[in-house]
Sequence to fold (231 residues):
Amino acid sequence: MSRGQPNYSLNTVAQLVGLSPRTIRGYEESRLIAPARVGGNQQRMYSEQDLQWLRCIRDMIHDEGLTVTAIRRLLDLIPCWEIRHCAPSIALQCAPHQNVPAMARGALQTPASPSSAAASGDENGVAGRAADGRLEIKLIYGVEELGAVMHCSRCISAERTARRVALHYPGRVWVGKYSILSDEAANLGVCLSPTIVVGDVVVSCGKGIGEESLTRAVETCLADRQQAAAS
Fold:
């Protein structure tokens, strides 16, 4: 059975994912999902992929502290698999059947072989992107609570700003996300989030940043790189 085949009614889906039909309809109204409409009465029908996505929405809201509005805003900028930090193999499996209205479409990476990933020590492709010369906007995000990293509204806003700025420099700038508990945060000595680092410069720590200010920081860093390359 295809992951994209609509086989489940709204009531069946509600039981399978542990959400009420009203909640699922609310997600549809908020443009988080667009189920198929079948028959003369246009009955909502859901696929296996829809079920998985509804579970993802549920987990982002109940376990990670995101709101419906925050999820929708992120979907305008990046695809769902980037929000959830899915492995490339999962993203490739989900992408063809994902029914999310107007979701941004990021580049899909082909999963690296286990040997090459182990050799590089970089399962997420960060080293590869750094090696190709692109400038990284580093975002340290999240709030530590009971040993876990929880999302916060300031971090979501900072990510949106960073990704909007990066879109102005296709192929030259990318956004790297690191949790407050990550090795990267420890290496930078960061204890407040959101923190944004452009190149080697901390441009914002513990608070958000405006798009204009971040753009200036990126422009300065790119100009410095160009000057260094020319000298």
Remarks:
- The chain has two domains: 8-97, 124-230.
- The CA atoms of residues 84 and 126 lie 16 Å apart.
- The longest helix spans residues 211-230.
